[in-house]
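Dig into this one:

. . .
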Amino acid sequence: MTPDAMAARIVRYGELKPCKTAFIDAHTPGSDQKENFTIIGGGVSESPDQHVHIADTPGFNIGAAGQPPNCRNSLHSHRTAEVFFVLKGRWRFFWGRWGNAGEVVLEEGDIFNIPTGIFRGFENIGTDYGMIMAILGGDDAGGGVIWAPQVIEDARDHGLVLGDNGKLYDSKQGQTLPEGVAPMPLLSDAELAAFPEPGTAQVIPDYVARYWDMMALSDRQPCKVIGAEGVLRDRPGFEVEFLSRGSIPDTPYSTPRHEVLMPMRGHWRLSWEGGSTVLNPGDTAAIPPSLSHAIAPAMTGEASLYRVTATDDPAGPTRPQ
């Protein structure tokens, strides 16, 4: 593979293109400053303004959310997996019909495999602009967002209407629902009752992994984070591993499946037959199947990286028991 061909498969952090109108709460006070990034795959954006960096999907989607302090992402649910790790800042994740069933605070490097089928939201509680990276289950993540009724009502009061076609219409820009398109219906009380309300103690042990724990577990081999044998045992259609300086492969390797590399700390040299490049924190590299390649820290000091690999498992829901 030529360097140019590989460059087309790498999205640099500094080249990410944000969308500020991606979701229904784009005008809602407290949520109107967030930025959404679609890195690999179409993601779940409801806006035609969303820029997609790499359209082809490897069996899952990669995205990101950037928010200034005190900015919140409103309560919503997904039909497939949604996994976040904190790249920058300090974040509070909360869940439940009203966002008060449970919560957890994540620091840089921590990862959260949020159970599907529950309403969830998150906010930057740090002092600077924060960034979280996301892995979404399935090739087609579109249409996978279900909003809590109060989010739809608040958005309407601030000029944004979500059609039942999954698209947003902004009355502040003179837009109206097209003929034949109705507003997205609110969930009924019976439908809402089907959404679980797990408490904090039910969720954290099986769905949250801490950065420094994974650093310790990766001192000699990659730490399996999400997967059938992972710290977080789940099969959402992909596996997640955590690599540090002590767990890098000794020789070049290849896999028959799609692989995505996402550095967390340090600078990593990616080499393959035909070239090499350095990956930095926040970069995303999509490695094609069967390409022999090697990764290694490019400098001294702390180094960590998330590696995501597609599996044959369906991108279906898992819930806390």
Summary: The first helix runs from residue 3 to 7. The chain has two domains: 3-143+187-208, 211-310. Helices lie at 3-7, 149-157, 189-193, 200-207, 211-217.
